[in-house]
Fold:
Amino acid sequence: MNAALRPAAMSALRGAAALLAAGALWEALVVLAGIRPDYLPRLSDILALIATVPEPYVEGFLRTASETVLGFALGAVVGVVNGVLFKQSRLLRELVFPLFVISQTIPVIAFGAVVVLWFGNTVFAKALIAFYLTFFPVTVNTVHGLESVDRLQVNLLRSFGASRLQLLLRLELPAALPQIFVALRLACTLSLLGAIAGEGFGDTVGLGVLLLQAMYNEQVPALWAAILVCGLLGTSFYGLVALVERRAVFWRTEL
Structure:
């Protein structure tokens, strides 16, 4: 196995073992404590429900995943670009950054309602809501990462005639990658929450739809099934971002 991938494989094995242990504990707790199914069903019953009617969960997983990934990618790109621009221009930072802070005080429900009114119940609308929760932490961490670059290294490269673009690409951005990936790992979970929240405004497919349908119909096993699939999507997405971080920030192995 590739040495760079071995830590990721070990993390995946540890995560799988933890999930199996948590599942066994869940099953034992419900059985031994006699918990009523309308409060907490047995894990085996929930998995059996998913296996019996997998189509809505598969379709919901794929739809929500597409909205999440699109919003995350847009937020990551915009966040990094904003961070670079704010680092290069203090005036721009002082003028625009307060507007970003104000935007984050708007409840996601209010922002989502406006987006859905503008763009309808489309994948793009849900992705915009995911983007709304994603770009700000990436922007902040990019700025902090760029500002933490060793000034002695900057001055050394300048003494060799490096341009501003060369400084950015060869020193500042690589040095800021650890900080940026901290924000990306946070943003990947926030983008999922944004996509699910957006589906609550009305849609026919998606994990958010399954959650609302199960809640309104008081179908507790279906509700827990949707929660489990949401957890699977969030964990998988986080693991993918962490794997990319291990490859990109190869000199920093701890996550």
In short: The radius of gyration is 22 Å. Residues 99 and 254 are 34 Å apart (CA to CA). Residues 164-199 form the longest helix (36 residues). The chain has a mean pLDDT of 89.
